[in-house]
Structures are given as C-alpha cells and as structure tokens.
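Hey,
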Amino acid sequence: MCELYNCADFFIIGSPSETQCLAAIECCLCDVPIIMRNTGFVTNLDLEEKNQIGIIGDNLEQAVYTIKNSDKKYMPREIVEKYYSIDEMCNKWIKFLNMI
C-alpha cells in the first residue's frame, strides 16, 4: 500500500463515522495529506495539527480544490509521528500498565 500512497497527491476518506482510520494514518506516515471529516484519530488533534495533515471538514469539493491548488506544504507524517511513534506508544502502554 505504501507504493500506492506515495503515488498520490492526497488521500480521501469519506466515512462519517471512522473510529481510528488506519488507512489515513498510513497515508500520513507516507507524508501524503488527507481529506476527511472530523472523525476518528483527527478529533484528538488541535486546529493547527489538523491544518498540517490536510483538509478536515465536510465539503469534499472545496477540500479537493484547496489541496490541489495550494502551494501549502503539509506535514502529516510529522504530526502523526507525535502520537503514533513506537516511543510514544510504548510510553502510553507503560502509563496504562502502571494504572492497573
């Protein structure tokens, strides 16, 4: 899938109720900006982070137009690695296990 993601200018996930959206996370890790609704993992991001991973909202047509016609440099990999890196996940597991 990485080869396919790396050929794309952006990734669209149109689901109104994604829980985690691993495909969008994979795209972000390939540094491909995403277009999706405010659902799943992006609900935990602040507005600045959402703007750096792509276009988050309900207007698909406007999002595609904006992402295709913008010179903006998106940084989805940098944002997602803050939350889903191996070190961060290990820290979350340690914190969780210490609570039990």
